[in-house]
Amino acid sequence: MSDQHFTFLSEHAYPALMDALAKAGAKVHILRGESIVDLASLFEAAAKDLPMGDFRRQPRSERDNPSDWTLAGFRDYLWQGLSEQRNPRQAIVWVNADRLRRSRREDFDLAVEALQDVSESLLPETELGSGEWTDGDVDLRIFLVGAGPAFPEMQPAVEFAA
After folding, report:
1. In 3D, which of 88, 92, 146 has the Cα closest to residue 114?
2. For the chain, what are the domain ranges?
C-alpha cells in the first residue's frame, strides 16, 4: 500500500529508503517495532523513539504511563512533538511493523489510522491548495517496513512538497 504520505515497504528496501530520506534532507524518526505486539507496547515504544511533545517535558514522576494512553493521547503527543521539530520535512520509519500486524491486526489497523490522522493534520496549507508554509507545518511521510505480502518489494519514492 502506498500513497504520497504513507507507504508499506519490504524490509529489504530499508537501506534504499534511508538513503533516499537522507538525500531529501528529512528529519527521520525510527520507531523500533521489535517489541510492539499491541497498542500498549506501541505507546511504550513511541514514548522512547518518537518526539512526543509535552510528554517529554513533564518530570518523570508526573508523567502518565504510556501503556495507559488512549489513541487520542498518542495522536496529540505525537502531533505536538513533530510540529515542534522545526523541520518541514520529516519521516517516521516504523521497522518491524509486521510484528504488530501479525499479533493484533485490529491494533495494527488502529495504529495505522492514528498515524494517518497525524500526517494529515500536519499537512501545510499549501498541500490543501491555499496559504503559505508556516512554522509547525510538516510534510510528514510514514513508512511501515516489514516482512510478508503486505510489505511489497519496491524502490522507495521520497518526495517532499517543502
Report:
1. 92
2. 6-129+141-146
- Yes or no: say if 83 and 138 are a contact pair by the CB < 8 Å rule: yes
Q: Is the pLDDT of residue 126 over 70?
A: no
Q: Nearest 5 degrees, angle CA 35-CA 88-CA 117?
A: 50
**Residue 158 contacts by C-beta under 8 Å, 6 or more apart in sequence?**
17, 20, 21, 23, 24, 26, 91, 141
pTM over 0.70: yes
Per-residue DSSP letter, 90? E
Which class is domain 6-129+141-146?
Answer: alpha beta
pLDDT, the chain, mean: 85
Q: How far apart are CA 156 and CA 133, in angstroms?
A: 26
